[in-house]
């Protein structure tokens, strides 16, 4: 395995790409390789022990188009021994019953296929009706961002989440 993190992101409007590149700029603890979802293969996931996934949720809880097209292959990936963190974009006002569903759709598969998810994010401060993106009653599977309704909170949330994820990785390394 390579000693770096793979950041897989899918973008239709460019917002997820903006977050992915900004995350890469802020990332401190290791080298990070960006892989756009339209170019990813299942073999790309094999190259990394630590993976970050970024995607948006569309319409009535649909995955971002590249992840939607890759979904059947995604379900075959063996995440055993892999640590995964995720961030998701959604619209909690326009689609309050599907806010960041993509996090949960992929998160369930990652867990079913042996992965370990870090970077769970509190759902406090969001206003939505339902979400498959919830890991439990109080946390999303990863960072939830809303470009439409809480744009001003994206930067501070992203910075805090990166620190959280890096700390969780460092703690895992110390325990190993």
Automatic annotation (TrEMBL):
Keywords: Electron transport, Flavoprotein, FMN, Nitrogen fixation, Transport. It comes from the Bacteria. The keyword Endoplasmic reticulum does not apply. Its cofactor is FMN. It holds the Pfam family Flavodoxin_1. Belongs to the flavodoxin family. Low-potential electron donor to a number of redox enzymes. This is Flavodoxin. It comes from Fulvivirga kasyanovii.
